[in-house]
Write a structure and sequence with these properties.
The protein is α+β, with helices and mostly antiparallel strands. The chain has 2 domains: 1-68, no CATH class; 72-211, Jelly Rolls (Sandwich). It has 7 helices and 13 strands. Strands 6, 8, 9, 10 and 12 form a 5-stranded antiparallel sheet that branches. It has a 4-stranded antiparallel sheet with strand order 5-13-7-11. β3 and β4 form a beta hairpin. α6 crosses α7 (190-225). Mean pLDDT is 75; it is low at 1-9 and 58-71.
Length: 226
């Protein structure tokens, strides 16, 4: 897979496995990344296999952004700052890391654009990002997201378009997990997926509750000033 166009990366494929079952649809980057080792019964990146390393080029010259840092790796210690990973062992975190990719970005880079497909969640390992909304000629910043927090989960779960731009405030290390990878994690390692998904759901609930309180406060203030 030494040459790949953006259009081929967006295409989906199905796999006919040895159990005579058809799996898919699968996007090309996911298809090329993930293999299952019968030796240790674990999912890992194709680039981690010596046999497959020569077949899969870690960075094709015309690869899309998804492939920009293929082969980079986060460490379990970086995930200890997230509440939802506190109870997981280093071995569990090593398994989880295999389902995502490390993205390193400079200050002022756009991580996601408003309107992009919501196909992944991002964990901020270091640095900080901000959401940006453009209303006419005015720019607003609904929130800033520091290290130890994540973003993009709502769009990933309901497959909706991104509701805002997200830009790095400083040089940042982000860990991206695609929707396809989460589905694979749930299917292959439900014991590991359960506490992570529960933690994400709890955080989403807290954010929605806080947003409701802010909305109620704004409505009450408007009523008083009338």
């Amino acid at each position: 897979m030494r040459a790949m166009t953006a259009s081929s990366a967006e295409a989906t494929y199905k796999v006919w496995a040895v159990d005579n079952m058809v799996y898919g649809p699968i996007r090309l980057p996911v298809l090329a990344e993930w293999v299952h080792s019968q030796v240790d019964n674990a999912w890992r990146r194709a680039m981690e296999s010596e046999v497959l390393r020569e077949i899969f080029n870690p960075k094709p010259p015309d690869a899309p952004a998804d492939w920009r840092f293929l082969g980079s790796k986060a460490s379990p210690d970086e995930f200890r700052q997230f509440d939802l990973f506190i109870t997981l062992s280093d071995a569990d975190l090593e398994q989880f890391i295999r389902f995502g990719e490390l993205v390193e970005m400079k200050t002022g880079e756009v991580v996601i654009h408003k309107g992009d497909p919501g196909d992944s969640v991002f964990f901020v390992l270091s640095g900080e990002v901000r959401a940006r909304l453009l209303v006419g000629l005015e720019q607003t910043v609904p929130c800033r997201i520091p290290a130890g927090e994540f973003f993009g989960e709502m769009s990933m779960f309901n497959q909706s378009a991104r509701s805002a731009d997200v830009i790095t405030e400083v040089e940042s290390r982000l860990f991206r997990v695609s929707a396809e990878a989460f589905l694979l994690l749930i299917k292959q390692l439900p014991r590991l997926a359960a506490p992570i998904l529960f933690g994400i759901a709890r955080t989403m609930t807290n954010r929605i509750t806080a947003a409701n309180f802010r909305l109620q406060g704004n409505v009450a203030a408007e009523f008083v000033w009338r």
